[in-house]
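Before the break, one more example. Copy the sequence into your notebook; we will annotate it together after we see the structure.
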Amino acid sequence: MDGTSLAVDELGRPTRSFLAHSRVCRFPRVVDLDIREFLSADRSPGARPLMSSRQCQPAATQRVSSEISIFRRTSSSIWQCRFTLPNGQWHRLSTRSSDETKAQVIAVKLAHQWATREQLGLPIARITFGTIAREVRQELEQSLAAHHGKVVYQDYITALDKYLIPFFGSHRFEDITSEQLSEFDRWRETQNRRTLSISTMRTHAAAFNRVTDAARMRGLLPANRPTLTLSVSGERGRIRPGFDRAEIDHLLEFAVSWAQVGRLAI
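Here is what the structure looks like once it is written out:
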């Protein structure tokens, strides 16, 4: 009986005896290649290595406990850890260590830390403000494109692009504090070189609230955390004087063409 018949069954699948033998002989992990191609491949010195489309598979795995394991990928010397949370979900993090013993100790500490976070109701997902803000921005754009959104949605998009995402984009929601909100107030004033009007600050606050509401719906904000809001104590707008005759004539002239292309064109 040849080596191929020992390695595969009648359907061409690897047999248990072959898989056990491959573990003992430390054959390279092959995922998406036909088993006969693997057996017939040239392994002489200098031959082209057998490639797989899933080279990111773990090269080594060590079980620390029934719920914790560490693994290392073929392209990295750093150990990753994988553990089960109390809610049954799997979570994966980097130990940032190339030493196997240290990686096991770090993996146990990380598992305890994240289990505590889950029990305290703290968010598990490591998603930033910028990620959710861009999703909210896309929803606003889609509403405007479908003519279902309000005109103020464009102002929300401007506030997200110019102020909120540049400042809060890399922060996780749980890390945003009242001190950072105060710092944001000072930062946006320096960006404008003047005190913003109340209407502008209300627009920023409304856009900020849309992002935090979306994050809360996805469980990214702690359930017991009070809602943070931006300050709206800006400079009150000044009352514009009434239109004079020249301005009225200009508006009436403009209205003729605008009525054909406006959002609610006649």
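Strands lie at 58-63, 68-73, 79-84, 90-94. The chain is about 50% helix and 10% strand. Try to locate both features in your own notes.
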